[in-house]
UniProtKB/TrEMBL annotation:
Domain ABC transporter: 22-266
Keywords: ATP-binding, Nucleotide-binding
A single GO molecular function term of this UniProt record: ATP binding
Naturally occurring in which organism (per UniProt): Promicromonospora soli
Protein name listed in UniProt: Sugar ABC transporter ATP-binding protein
Region (Disordered): 1-20
UniProt KW Nucleotide-binding keyword: yes
Cited InterPro entries: AAA+_ATPase (IPR003593), ABC_carbohydrate_import_ATPase (IPR050107), ABC_transporter-like_ATP-bd (IPR003439), ABC_transporter-like_CS (IPR017871), P-loop_NTPase (IPR027417)
CDD domains noted in UniProt: ABC_Carb_Monos_I (cd03216)
Amino acid sequence: MTTIDATTAPGRPGGTDTTPVLQARGLVKTYGRVVGLDGVDLELHRGEVLAIIGDNGAGKSTLIKCLTGAEIPDQGEILLDGKPVHFKRPQDARTAGIETVYQTLAVAPSLDVAANLFLGREVRRKGPLGSVLRITDRAGMRERARQELRELGISTLQDVTVPVENLSGGQRQAVAVARAAAFGSKVVVLDEPTAALGVRESGQVLELVRTLRDRGVPVIIISHNMPHVFDIADRIHVQRLGRRAATITPKSHTMTEAVAIMTGAAEA
């Protein structure tokens, strides 16, 4: 198995801290006789984009679910900033600073952009209005939403009071990514972020990923779109039959070679 050292991998932003922000060691997850993960290792460093690719049934989704608290691994350990963590539910991972944007997006269509950014984390007004009457600080949330969108360079969402149901697919994806960026202090995980998007909107989402990386936020992206993977990723984790088949980079391997490793047509 070919594994590229993350501290020297081509394309990885420079830095002296070699401790992974997020690391998995020997993760095992079974469902009866079905093996979802078979001793999987993974390392994610600060300021990098790690793509996870693999054929259907390779264990990509199971791996992400274990890393984000949706599943509990049967064996192995997960470390955040070098310290073991034990996520029993997604909220545990969110509290630790790991935000996930699933393919289904999980946005509330009837709510506006600002309300979606603070969904489940609504800010209440100061004083008795917030503590007793539990009135939300709508103006404050909208101002912070505008600021977050500006910092991410999202120019397609000028009005944060627009209901999400009136937005295009790419704009909805931008809202979901912005929400993850606003609260994902450690890691942002994106599951098929460009699926069902057009060329222009896909490009905008990939630019958002670059912005997150430039801000020092490491990103895990799961995708079947190989051109997008090779365009955005610093390193590529190849998953096959529940195991890590290889960790490569866009400079060390071609797309054809990556697909060959992924399908088992070639050894890493």
